[in-house]
Automatic annotation (TrEMBL):
<keyword id="KW-0436">Ligase</keyword>
<keyword id="KW-0963">Cytoplasm</keyword>
<protein>
    <recommendedName>
        <fullName>Cysteine--tRNA ligase</fullName>
        <ecNumber>6.1.1.16</ecNumber>
    </recommendedName>
</protein>
<dbReference type="InterPro" id="IPR014729">
    <property type="entry name" value="Rossmann-like_a/b/a_fold"/>
</dbReference>
<feature type="short sequence motif" description="'KMSKS' region">
    <location>
        <begin position="269"/>
        <end position="273"/>
    </location>
</feature>
<keyword id="KW-0030">Aminoacyl-tRNA synthetase</keyword>
<keyword id="KW-0479">Metal-binding</keyword>
<dbReference type="InterPro" id="IPR015803">
    <property type="entry name" value="Cys-tRNA-ligase"/>
</dbReference>
<keyword id="KW-0648">Protein biosynthesis</keyword>
<feature type="binding site">
    <location>
        <position position="236"/>
    </location>
    <ligand>
        <name>Zn(2+)</name>
    </ligand>
</feature>
<feature type="binding site">
    <location>
        <position position="240"/>
    </location>
    <ligand>
        <name>Zn(2+)</name>
    </ligand>
</feature>
<dbReference type="InterPro" id="IPR009080">
    <property type="entry name" value="tRNAsynth_Ia_anticodon-bd"/>
</dbReference>
<dbReference type="GO" id="GO:0016874">
    <property type="term" value="F:ligase activity"/>
</dbReference>
<keyword id="KW-0862">Zinc</keyword>
<feature type="domain" description="tRNA synthetases class I catalytic">
    <location>
        <begin position="18"/>
        <end position="317"/>
    </location>
</feature>
<feature type="binding site">
    <location>
        <position position="272"/>
    </location>
    <ligand>
        <name>ATP</name>
    </ligand>
</feature>
<comment type="subunit">
    <text>Monomer.</text>
</comment>
Amino acid sequence: MSFQFYNSKSGKKEPFLPKDPNRVKIYSCGPTVYNFAHIGNIRSFLFVDVLRRALLSEGYVLDQSMNITDIDDKIINASIEKKLSVEEITAPWTKAFFEDLESLNILKLEHYPKATESIEDMVDLVHRLQKNGLVYEKDGSLYYSIQKFKGYGELSKIDVAGMKSGVRNDADEYEKDDVRDFVLWKNQKSEGEKSWETDLGKGRPGWHLECSAMIRKVYGSGVDIHTGGIDLLFPHHENEHAQSQGAYPEEEFVTTWLHCEHLLVEGEKMSKSKGNFFTLRDILEKGYDKKQIRYLLISSHYRSKLNFSLAKLEEAKQALERIQTTLFRILESLDYVYENPERVNIQSIKAKIKNNQILSALTDFESGFCDDLNLPKSLGSLFEFIKEINQSYDKNLWVGNDHLELVYYFLFVDSLLGVLDFKKESPVFSLEEENEINGLVEERAMAKKNKNFARADEIRNILSSRGIQLLDTKEGITQWKKVQ
């Protein structure tokens, strides 16, 4: 089945036609590693995961990247303030980022380039821009002259007609609609500031330069798809586009731009001052299951604002239980004897299904996500079919190979959702195991009381790896349960 995606550059849905289906090149803006990713970031990373899973399910071979921004203003300021190296600041946050991805069953990509490992590529790109007459120097720093690039504004549709020539911006980030020449290479301003000695001078790259250079480093060309949050459309992606097209005017930098909308919390923008700022770990600490979180964050269309709330996590739990209960009913009819899901080729599943009712349901689910990753449409078809499945089981209408073909249907569904369990529920713990778990829970409570949060987090991770979910009640009591 063919895909169509809403291209931010054209402002319309377009058929997806990669230059090479056996090497679909996708680049996604990743984290700036100076803190835990908040759930708005997490939603964007899950959107990338759904895109990957969807394309894989249709047989595309992917060559996919997500960058790690490990040098920018925030990181340098933290480095100077704490008297630590940039590497010491970013290493634990980079580790936490990958732990969060694994926790939410986000598939690994082919490349995770780091900005600090791509300095030579950035310098090369600046040289090419200089050669093409798009760079000027001021006070030792190098700037991109956006008035000299005729295509500036065509991605974000920003109006540059009223901008004043030579108005510059040195910050890595700036306000929306603030149209200025942006810095490519910053000269070192203080001894404590991380810098590199290059033929551009002693300094460091501007944030916007990094992604353009890393794309060139990984692919040696442009890409089929570039993704990111809608907040990156301007100025970051506009500046990326200007840099890459300015350096290589003969090439198309990006064929399709995909942007994920904002996440709100209870209808408001997430903010620490409002008390509605959540990281993934904050929510797990409240006792919610990682599958609930994943399901909720992927269940809305990526181009729609997602209004997050704890109440919606409860709704997600109920939806998951409805899907899982039906799947277990099917598996029980087979006594859990079927082909190992890890060995099933997703692209071959449709050929295995002969029952027209099941095949039609699978096609409906598939047509939803092929239409610009419309998961609400796919999930709507899933729940309609779940109703049909249970009605037919109540009437003993599923016969012969139908049960196995229903399992194939759910394997296909979960290749996109990544939240279902195809195994028998684990047996209850022995008394010895329960005592060990209770001991760890008590140790964690004592660690938190003594403000040894590192040990408390370590214990929680140990228990989580064993399928134990912790729930801290308002009364200060910690409860636990087996969740996988």
